[in-house]
Design a protein that fits this description.
It contains 19 helices and 20 strands. By secondary structure, the protein is of the alpha+beta class. The strands form five sheets. Strands 1-5-6-7-8-4 form a six-stranded mixed β-sheet. A five-stranded antiparallel β-sheet has the order 12-11-15-14-13, sandwiched between helices. A five-stranded mixed β-sheet has the order 17-18-16-19-20, sandwiched between helices. α5 packs antiparallel against α9, α13 crosses α14 and α17 crosses α18.
Length: about 575
């Protein structure tokens, strides 16, 4: 199996691999890889990345990731999987799409080897370079070669821009898909005022972007990997900009951004080829930058999760977050996914909006307090904010923080938010997080129409929600007086359960209760007597009243067909 490179670093005298398979799928799955079959969470870290070569098959190190270049036939794939299983490989990567036959599935299951697909259009070279970068992330003491891509510092787009500028003899900008400038080279003074305006604003000016749209330049960049030549554009002052050339930066089928050069004329064939090769290198660096941001986000989420759980390591996690030894406020934000806005068949939209909401909340908290931290853990983004001022006013201030956030987000990303009790020490942080979860559960139920909840206001509702869960898990059904009333209503199309509910909700006030169901007070009193008779209960007994109230709030009590529609029904 030919070439093998082991991505390890010496730590305490022991070679330590970089990442497990789940991490590889998480970081590269959006752009380069897709999980086709198998379990990505199999324990063990990737020890090496191996290029498959049927003519050269050394013994693999345990838990290797094998790149099956050129392996396509289902029979060959199944045979290779069985071989890899004997050598305890982690996964086999194949060019997608490929036929996932029953034979291949069975071989993968038997070998306990996951099958990954390299997305259409993604080069094997991109995948191998990104694996090298990913498996070496966070490694202190790695070699210079391991920390570079194409001889340049990994992720240093400014160094890349300067290198391209030297190759093309022209000032360069590297931009994202939204025409925001990510990096630029020197010699920008040789360009024109529009380029200077772009650099200063870190964004292509709107008037120039409009012209580029009208000319179809952005469309051509999205559809093709070829170099696009842009004729001069009027600068509205009697002059024109310099011509431009641009090329999209791609990773597989995904367009990451573009490279722009201000040139006096079209480039020679040699320089055009240099720019095309440079675009591939820029793609690697942009993926490295994105992977680095994902790593930081994941690290922050791991530390925050450890701190919020309150177990072993919570103190160290808070210390690494810079939040140890002080009272803390625990806040929670989640996307309100009810209603027509979110069709759960389109999970991509939900995931995107969750991430946007999480990023917005993290940015908001950083402006509120520089040492606050926020991270998404599952569907909830939690925030830890150092408490300032008196403890008795801390939760009120937290509500104000959340209200300001809601005002800024508006209705575009509908959130629900929660405030937990002040955590005066480490032992109370986990309890406060639990309270936040319980409040968010109440708000999700929708029985209370509000966007911000405090535990001290909603503890009762939280307890009722938990009782509903318990009753559902036990398949509880109404019994006793309530069961008799439900049965009577169904058989006689009556409304005694409605009468009982209205009376209990009104604390026994017949006037209020009768108005709530739109009947005369005397009619309501008659129905109430029937409740006591049919239910065989004493409405004057507080224990019986409470028991029926709990049943009505906790158990599913359906109204019978036509309930309340029959005049004079009793």
């Amino acid at each position: 199996m030919g070439r093998v490179y082991r991505e390890t670093v010496q730590h305490g005298g022991t070679a330590r691999p970089r990442a497990n398979l789940g991490r590889v799928v998480d970081d590269l799955g959006a752009t380069l890889l897709e999980l086709v079959h198998g379990d990505p969470d199999r324990p063990g870290e990737i020890s090496a990345v191996v290029f498959h070569d049927p003519l050269d098959q050394p013994v693999l190190p345990p838990h290797a990731l094998v790149l099956g270049i050129g392996v396509e036939a289902p029979g060959h794939v199944a045979a290779l999987l069985r071989t890899l299983g004997h050598q305890n490989a982690a996964a086999l990567v194949l060019r997608a799409p490929f036929p996932l036959t029953d034979e291949v599935r069975a071989a993968a299951d038997e070998a306990s080897v996951a099958v990954l697909g390299l997305r259409r259009g993604a080069p094997w070279g991109h995948l191998s370079e990104m694996l090298r970068s990913l498996l070496n992330q966070g490694a202190g003491g790695g070699s210079a070669e391991e920390e570079s891509l194409g001889g340049l510092p990994a992720g240093d787009l400014f160094a890349v821009a300067n290198a391209i500028a030297a190759l093309l003899d022209a000032p360069i900008t590297i931009e994202d898909r939204n025409s925001r400038v990510l990096a630029f080279s020197g010699r920008q003074d040789e360009a024109d005022p529009s380029r200077v305006e772009t650099i200063l604003g870190r964004q292509v000016p709107e008037r120039y972007a409009r012209v580029l749209h009208e000319r179809g330049v952005f469309r051509d960049l999205l559809r093709s990997d070829q170099i696009v030549f842009i004729d001069p554009i009027s600068d509205r002052m009697g002059g024109f900009t310099l011509p431009r050339i641009a090329i999209s930066v791609r990773a597989g089928d995904e367009v990451l951004g573009s490279i722009w050069a201000a040139v006096p004329a079209p480039l020679s064939d040699e320089r055009n080829e240099a720019l095309r090769e440079a675009a591939k290198l820029v793609a690697l660096h942009m993926l490295r930058v994105r992977a680095g941001a994902d790593v930081q986000r994941r690290m922050r989420a791991d530390l925050l999760s450890t701190a919020l759980e309150g177990g072993v390591g919570a103190g160290e996690a808070l210390e690494r977050l810079g939040l140890s030894g002080q009272p803390l406020l625990v806040l929670g934000v989640a996307l309100d996914e009810r209603g027509r806005r979110y069709d759960h068949s389109d999970s991509a939209a939900v995931v995107h909006d969750r991430q946007s909401l999480s990023d917005a909340f993290a940015l908001h908290l950083s402006a509120v307090h520089p040492r606050s931290t926020a991270a998404a853990i599952g569907a909830v983004t939690y925030g830890l904010v150092p408490m300032t001022g008196a403890a008795e006013k801390a939760e009120t201030r937290a509500v104000r923080i959340l209200q300001d956030f809601l005002d800024r987000v508006g209705d575009r990303l509908p959130p629900i938010t929660a405030v937990g009790p002040v955590a005066l020490d480490l032992s109370e942080v986990a309890h406060s997080r639990s309270c936040v979860d319980r409040v968010l559960r109440v708000l999700r139920d929708g029985r209370i129409h509000r966007r911000i909840g405090r535990f001290d206001e909603l503890q009762g509702e939280a307890l009722v929600s938990e009782l509903r869960d318990l009753a559902t898990a036990r398949s509880e059904e109404p019994t006793g007086a309530l069961a008799r009333l439900i049965d009577y209503d169904r058989r006689h199309r009556a409304n005694l359960v409605q009468t009982l509910r209205a009376w209990l909700d009104a604390f026994g006030d017949v006037v209020v209760a009768s108005e709530s169901v739109a009947v005369h007070q005397n009619t309501f009193r008659y129905r109430l007597r029937r409740v006591a008779e049919i239910g065989q209960c004493d409405l004057g007994d507080p224990d019986q009243r409470f028991a029926m109230m709990v049943q009505l709030r906790v158990l599913r009590v359906d109204s019978p067909p036509g309930n309340g529609r029959r005049p004079g029904a009793s």
